[in-house]
């Protein structure tokens, strides 16, 4: 009994410390995952607490469940626009890109660590996937909004390349451990993984959405149902020879975008669960490693990390993205954000579980590479995004969102609450002064805890809370007017996009008539939106810039078909 | 950076006018500009402003619009500053109606160069304190003094 209580005590303590440590990481800008890893190592056998944990089975079990939850959460937060912009390029990166990374890193590993080519390739495969957890958490935690093309590609890539890496690793472990011959059946198995995983994920997502609409469960149970279902689907898909991770990611995507009334509860709970999973997984991996063992192969591992970051990833990105003709800055950033996270370390458990020789070598090298990647790449993402000018002004959001989920409606309805401050643009106006293109109902303000009804036409004072009722899909536009930092956002936007806008539908000759721009051989009847699409070869995203003469045109709004509807105009900076 | 005073005449500064549509307020601006530029017809000036509005609204948000147009006959930019008593729908970026209009007529060849002038005006009008005073100005003269005072403070910075 005492030993169990001791284990609970230590576990609880580590979690508490980790959660508090996120504050430190926010202050230093250090990747949180790294902080958790270090806390785990400090608690480990050579650290301060001296916990001995060397059970790869348990580690693998916890790691798999944590990854399932993180991927489901990531899928739910992936918007359909993102899929439209980035599905094809992300798929290329997640397949061809992973193989290329594996190949280049594998050859380098064989050379650096004196391994056979196959062993080197196994190490390459282990290291070949970018980590969804790491990428998602950095984008979310740093409040960084970068251009959609880049963000979507990275997110979908990181969500979907784990299956590929897992496949490659399992295959190579099979060949090395049991001496299976290399054959084309590998390709078939991979295809089966992808197809079964995709189908299961799609089916499960649909069924789950259907159940959410029909089952008269208490609202508290839907988030639990989501957790239980995603873990269940992961296992079922694996059982049928599909990729469980792919299925869970896809299912999350369908569930998250079905506009379910319960979604806000599910998202809220999963947000917490995804963090617990991150913390738990990294703490555990920190505990599992024996720090002094890392020294055994430190120099070659560091060199391998350098090869991965500066050679393998850039080449893989460059070649995979050839058909999509991404702008050079975008490609450079995608190359840089080849963040490695927990997946390589978990994959490095496979050789260990299979009882292969040198099992610790894979684990130790993967561990060093992941730490280097988290430190070097994770720490520098934000400055690099700014340097490459890929950051776009953040969207405005309400202070509180309360879904009206108890009443079934065709569109999800929400009550939004906005705090008024001394800097709110709506300060000292009243509701009738404001105009909205979207349907929205004013519910009054809460002042000193008292509700003032709309009929009283309250003038908005600082510290008031404005409440409105609107559809979920209009919440963004409403926030642009009511959010307290709208003023600041307008300033950011005007410095980013320029003060004035052009409609995407105007023709080049209209533009020329006013600004006298030499378009050379362009068709004067072509629309501005068409011209920008042509310049970018593919879907245009917010923040794409075109320079015309001394004018800098920045895409400010994009419609569903991916055409620019509003383009900001400003002079080119001297 | 920018000397508003040199572009703005006191009789082109009007406070508390009363119009109810985008077209009407632009016509009024054209009328005021015409008094400064007798060689241009009112209609010609209105045309110039409307040409730019067709490309996209000049309402920059926060109840402010900076309509602008290019004219052959002007040699230096001319400002017309009008404050409406009631806000007018103007298709502004933030969908909110507009009550502060700072129109500017630009010499034809300098459209690109004057984007920075426009940005300067936008920056000047981004001061909440100023727009609050602009909205409360009772007389044309008070409004004019206010603009001169603030644009000089801006030039000194």
What are the salient characteristics of this protein?
heterodimer; A: alpha+beta; Na+/H+ antiporter like fold; Uridine Diphospho-n-acetylenolpyruvylglucosamine Reductase, domain 3; four-stranded antiparallel sheet; 9 strands; B: 157 residues; alpha/beta; six-stranded mixed sheet; globular
Please give a structural write-up:
The complex is a heterodimer of chains A (574) and B (157). With 574 residues, chain A is an alpha+beta fold. Chain A contains 22 helices and 9 strands. Chain A is 60% helix and 9% strand. In chain A, a hairpin with a 2-residue loop joins strand 7 and strand 8. The termini of chain A are far apart. Chain B has 157 residues and is of the alpha/beta class. Chain B contains 6 helices and 6 strands, in the order αβααβββββααα. Chain B has helices spanning 4-7, 22-36, 42-55, 115-124, 128-136, 140-156, and strands spanning 8-17, 59-61, 64-65, 68-71, 78-88, 98-107. Chain B starts with a helix and ends with a helix. The A-B interface holds A 423, 425, 433-437, 477, 480-481, 486-487, 490-491, 494, 498-503, 506, 510-511, 513-516, 549-551, 566-567, 569-571 and B 51-52, 54-58, 60-62, 66, 70, 87, 89, 93-97, 109, 111-113, 115-116, 118-119, 122, 126, 128.
């Amino acid at each position: 009994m005492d030993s169990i209580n001791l284990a609970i005590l230590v576990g609880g303590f580590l979690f508490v410390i980790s959660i508090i440590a996120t504050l430190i990481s926010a202050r230093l800008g250090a990747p949180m995952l790294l902080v958790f890893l270090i806390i785990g190592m400090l608690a480990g056998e050579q650290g301060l607490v001296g916990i001995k944990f060397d059970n790869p089975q348990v580690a693998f079990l916890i790691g798999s469940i944590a990854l399932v939850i993180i991927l489901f959460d990531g899928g739910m937060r992936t918007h359909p626009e993102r899929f439209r912009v980035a599905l094809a390029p992300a798929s290329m990166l997640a397949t061809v890109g992973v193989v290329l990374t594996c190949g280049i890193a594998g050859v380098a590993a064989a050379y650096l660590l004196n391994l056979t080519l196959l062993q080197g390739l196994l190490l390459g495969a282990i290291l070949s996937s970018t980590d969804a957890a790491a990428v998602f958490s950095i984008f979310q935690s740093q409040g960084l909004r970068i251009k959609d093309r880049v963000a979507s590609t990275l997110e979908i890539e990181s969500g979907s390349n784990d299956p590929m890496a897992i496949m490659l690793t399992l295959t190579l472990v099979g060949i090395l451990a049991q001496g299976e011959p290399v054959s084309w059946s590998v390709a078939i198995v991979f295809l089966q993984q992808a197809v079964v995983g995709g189908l299961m994920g799609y089916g499960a997502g649909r069924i789950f959405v259907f159940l959410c609409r029909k089952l008269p469960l208490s609202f508290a149970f839907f988030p639990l149902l989501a957790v239980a279902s995603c873990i269940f689907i992961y296992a079922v898909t694996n059982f049928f020879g599909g990729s469980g991770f792919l299925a869970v990611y896809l299912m999350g995507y369908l569930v998250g975008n079905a506009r379910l009334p319960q979604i806000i509860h599910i998202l809220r709970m999963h947000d917490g669960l995804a963090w617990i999973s991150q913390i738990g997984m990294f703490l555990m991996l920190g505990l599992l490693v024996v720090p002094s063992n890392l020294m055994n192969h430190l120099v070659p591992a560091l060199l391998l990390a350098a090869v991965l970051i500066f050679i393998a990833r850039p080449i893989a990105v460059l070649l995979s993205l050839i058909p999509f003709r991404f702008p050079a800055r975008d490609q450079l950033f995608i190359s840089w954000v080849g963040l490695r996270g927990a997946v390589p370390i978990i994959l490095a458990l496979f050789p260990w579980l299979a009882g292969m020789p040198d099992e610790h070598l894979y684990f130790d090298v993967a561990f060093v590479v992941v730490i280097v990647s988290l430190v070097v790449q994770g720490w520098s993402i934000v400055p690099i995004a700014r340097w490459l000018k890929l950051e776009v002004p953040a969207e405005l959001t309400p202070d509180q969102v309360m879904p009206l989920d108890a009443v079934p409606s065709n569109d999800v309805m929400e009550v939004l609450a906005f705090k008024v401050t001394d800097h709110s643009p709506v300060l000292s106006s009243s509701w009738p002064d404001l105009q909205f293109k979207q349907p929205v109902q004013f519910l009054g303000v809460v002042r000193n805890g008292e509700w003032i009804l709309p009929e009283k036409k309250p003038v908005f004072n600082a510290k008031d809370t404005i409440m409105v009722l609107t559809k979920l899909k209009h919440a963004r536009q409403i926030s642009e007017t009511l959010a307290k930092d709208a003023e600041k956002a307008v300033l950011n936007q005007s410095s980013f996009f320029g003060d004035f806008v052009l409609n995407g539908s105007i023709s080049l000759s209209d533009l020329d008539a006013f600004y006298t721009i030499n378009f050379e051989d362009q068709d004067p009847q072509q629309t501005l939106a068409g011209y920008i699409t042509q310049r970018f070869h593919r879907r245009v995203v917010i923040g794409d810039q075109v320079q015309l003469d001394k004018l800098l045109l920045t895409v400010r709004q994009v419609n569903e078909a991916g055409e620019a509807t509003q383009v900001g105009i400003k002079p080119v900076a001297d | 950076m920018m000397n508003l005073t040199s572009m703005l005449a006191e009789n082109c500064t009007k406070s508390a006018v009363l119009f109810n549509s985008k077209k009407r307020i632009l016509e009024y601006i054209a009328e005021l500009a015409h008094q400064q530029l007798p060689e241009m017809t009112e209609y010609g000036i209105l045309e110039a402003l409307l040409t730019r509005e067709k490309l996209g609204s000049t309402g920059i948000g926060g109840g402010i619009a900076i309509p602008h147009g290019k004219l052959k006959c002007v040699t230096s930019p001319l400002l017309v500053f009008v404050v409406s008593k009631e806000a007018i729908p103007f298709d502004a970026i933030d969908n909110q109606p507009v009550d502060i209009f700072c129109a500017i007529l630009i010499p034809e060849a300098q459209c690109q160069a004057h984007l920075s002038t426009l940005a300067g005006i936008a920056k000047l009008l981004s001061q909440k304190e100023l727009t609050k005073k602009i909205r409360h100005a009772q007389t044309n003269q008070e409004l004019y003094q206010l603009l001169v005072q603030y644009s000089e403070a801006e030039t000194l910075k």
